[in-house]
Amino acid sequence: MLHIVNKSSLERNTLESCLRVANGGAILLIEDAVYAATRGNEAEGKLRDALARFKVYVLGPDLDARGMGDRLMEGVSTVDYGGFVDLVAEHKNCQSWL
C-alpha cells in the first residue's frame, strides 16, 4: 500500500497516525508533509525509525518549493511528478492521510 501524507507534523498528527496504524508499504510525503523528512525537524526521529518498516519518498518539487532540498535526511528518496504517478501505479492500494 502507498500511504500519502500531505500535512505538516507540526500542524496535525497525520504522519504519526499513519506510522502507528500502517502495516508496511511505502510512504509518500507531499505538500507540507515534506518538512518531516528534513534534518533537524521534530518528526525526524519518528521517520528515521519508520525507515525500517517503510520505503519513504518525498515529492521533490514540494521539497524545493519550501527551500528544503538541501536538508533531506538520509534514507528518504526523492521523486518528481512522474515518480509520483509510478508509485501510485506500483501499489495496489493508496491511502491518503488527511
Write up what this structure looks like.
With 98 residues, the protein is an alpha/beta fold. The longest helix is centred in the C-terminal third of the chain and has 10 residues, at 81-90. It is built from 4 helices and 5 strands. Strands 4-3-2-1-5 form a 5-stranded parallel β-sheet. Helix 3 (60-65) links the parallel strand 3 and strand 4.
User: Mean of the pLDDT scores?
Assistant: 95
Q: Which value, in Å, is the CA radius of gyration?
A: 12 Å
H/E element order:
EHEHEHEHE
Query: Which regions are unreliable across 5 or more consecutive residues at pLDDT < 50?
Result: none
Shape estimate: globular
Q: Strand order, biggest sheet?
A: 4-3-2-1-5
Q: Determine the fraction of residues in helical runs and give it as a percent range.
A: 25-40%
Tell me the fraction of residues in β-strands, as a range.
15-25%
Number of helical runs?
4
Largest β sheet strand count, sense and barrel closure = 5 strands, parallel
Distance between the termini: 16 Å
